[in-house]
Amino acid sequence: MNKTITRADLTEALYEKVGLSRNESADLVESILNHVSDALVDGEQVKIASFGTFLVRDKAKRIGRNPKTGEEHEIPPRRVLVFRASQVLKQALVEDWKGGPLDAYIEAGANDE
User: For the chain, which residues score pLDDT lower than 50?
Assistant: First the structure.
């Protein structure tokens, strides 16, 4: 249950389920990830229906404090990546899945956020 899904895993899933060649599957995964990455770098939101939304937030500079010494220091402004899960995905995470996580997620409906 604590497996990390890699690009190779996504490529293999496309190969097995869609019937593309392994090279075509790898190219498709790479293309999708590049497109998502480019959009996020440009400050755009990426919304994937029934999955969630990736967005970039700008955080202003602020004063931080070392908890041990109490010494204050300035934390510079930065951009952070945020992921907000859709209601479908949130629901799938808390339900008891009988057919496995992916099946429950797909059955939960592709017509929600």
Answer: 111, 113
